[in-house]
Specification:
The protein is an alpha+beta fold. It has a single domain, classed as Up-down Bundle (Outer membrane efflux proteins (OEP)), CATH 1.20.1600.10. Helices cover 60% and strands 10% of the residues. A 4-stranded antiparallel β-sheet has the order 1-2-3-4.
């Protein structure tokens, strides 16, 4: 009767008492002597002003208090805009790419963490071998054909003792890289959200400009009709009719030009939402979102709130830990392993006590000479660290520059808006008086045309300025880090 191979009840005997004591001693020694060769990490110093230079008149506040759940776009009070941003967060393909990169970084962290634990391997197989039967092979098997079958099964455990912190530094480097990837994802999401909100606000201002031009075209059409009637009555000349026609056609052309500009913004929004432009449309709106009061962070908070700065710092952390990994190459690697199993030339008595074997013991491996490769790798890693430090400091400087630029831009726009509003009021009053004079026959139509052109120019300038102020407010919010909270993001990361 064929005997089926089964696990022996004496499998534990594969390791002798002496081997077990040796392994346990080696493990204790490895854990007690574990260290790390990476430099102690400190955040790189960077110039941090006490306050923003152009922040006069702004309220110093923590944006996370005013921007609930980080939804900074809700400051504009537009339900349609809120829905579009939600769609972007769920469907934008660029965000999906960065999310996939973050999952890759997480997988590398799990892989690096797994290297800290022992590995368990099971092998079972059959070998069929042959050797010549000449005089030199008289000690071979009695099998006249020189063919031998070998059945074996082996259970092995190995563990690399992290004496010099190489594995832990590698884990730390991968963890920092994963956090940098998370911050990169937040940065690209913030950038795309900012782009979407800017496009939406510009589109809504264009809706208002479109209504203005449509109303102006109707007014110019009435003026042309009145001028033609006066020409037929002999009250005005042909030149007045030509002026009225020129004014009307120019405004109609401006209206047509506005249509394709709005279409471009609509198409850009569709792509940001992950949709084809042909299947997306935004209906005209009668309302322009109000300019919000943007709460201003303290300069020091900018280092924590901007995801691009957070990403730059965590890349410094990763480079710092990588130095320890390459420094560990100067020291020997200690691997503790044990294995045991059965080996037999017969399948029937394969799993039996006489066919058992086992081995246990430590192994040291060290490179004695490599022509300066390790030294070069250490120099390279330290240079990479210096590069990331410089990139971090530049990111901080760029962040402060952007905030200062948008602060002064909004302040200038605010002053300009007050002056242009006064100019618009004067232009409207001048137009009213000029129309009355023309209807009374006191002035020529050319005077009316000039005043109408000035009034329309002021109307459009005020709207363009409002558009600039809305866009600059979005850019300032993004420059301040939006509603992104670094600590909360890392704590909630899957």
């Amino acid at each position: 009767m064929t005997r089926r191979p089964t696990l022996s009840n004496r499998t534990l005997q594969l390791l002798g008492a002496r081997g077990s004591r040796l392994l346990a001693s080696s493990l204790c020694l490895a854990m007690l002597s574990a260290c790390t060769l990476s430099p102690d990490y400190h955040r790189p110093e960077s110039p941090t002003p006490v306050q923003f230079k152009h922040a006069a008149g702004w309220t110093q506040a923590n944006p996370s208090d005013a921007l609930a759940r980080g939804a900074w776009w809700e400051l504009y009070g537009d339900a349609r805009l809120n829905g579009l941003v939600d769609e972007l967060n769920a469907s934008n393909q660029t965000v999906a790419q960065y999310e996939a990169q973050y999952r890759q970084a997480q997988a590398l962290v799990r892989s690096a963490r797994g290297a800290l634990f022992p590995s368990l391997d099971l092998n079972a197989g059959k070998n069929r071998s042959s050797q010549g039967t000449g005089s030199s092979s008289s000690s071979l098997s009695n099998n006249s054909s020189g063919i031998r079958n070998t059945y074996s099964t082996t259970l092995g455990v190995s563990w690399e003792a992290d004496l010099w912190g190489k594995l832990r530094d590698s884990l730390a480097a991968n963890e920092a890289s994963a956090e940098a990837s998370l911050a990169d994802m937040a940065a690209i999401r913030l950038s795309l959200q900012s782009e979407l909100v800017q496009n939406y606000l510009q589109l809504r201002v264009m809706d208002e400009q479109k209504r203005l031009l449509e109303a102006t075209v109707l007014a110019y059409q009435r003026s042309l009709t009145m001028t033609e009637n006066q020409y037929r009555a002999g009250v005005s000349g042909k030149d007045a009719v030509a002026q009225a026609q020129t004014q009307l056609k120019t405004t109609q052309a401006d209206l047509v030009d506005l249509v394709w500009q709005r279409a471009q913004l609509e198409n850009a929004i569709a792509v940001l939402l992950g949709k084809a432009p042909a299947g997306f449309a935004l209906a005209d709106s009668q309302d322009i979102p109000a300019l919000p009061q943007v709460p201003l962070a303290l300069p020091s908070q900018l280092l924590e709130r901007r995801p691009d700065i957070a990403s730059a710092e965590r890349k410094v952390m990763s480079a710092n830990a990588s130095i320890g990994v390459v420094r560990a190459a100067y020291f020997p690697d200690l691997t503790l392993s044990m294995s045991g199993g059965y080996s037999s030339s017969s399948f029937n008595d394969w799993i039996s006590l006489p066919n058992r074997f086992w081995s246990v013991g430590p192994q040291l491996a060290m490179t004695l000479f490599d022509g300066g490769q390790r030294s070069a790798e250490v120099d390279r890693s330290e240079a990479v660290y210096d590069q990331t430090v410089a990139q971090y400091r530049q990111a901080v400087l760029d962040g402060f520059k952007e905030v200062e630029n948008y602060l002064v831009q909004l302040k200038v726009y605010e002053d300009e808006a007050r002056i242009r509003s006064e100019a618009l009021d004067s232009a409207r009053e001048s137009l009213r008086l000029t129309n009355n004079q023309y209807k009374a026959g006191l002035i020529a139509y050319l005077d009316v045309v000039n005043v109408q052109t000035t009034a329309l120019s002021n109307e459009r300038s005020v709207l363009n300025l409002l558009q600039g102020r809305l866009v600059a407010s979005v850019q300032l919010i993004a420059a301040l880090g939006g509603g992104w909270d670094a600590q909360a993001a890392f704590a909630e990361a899957p």
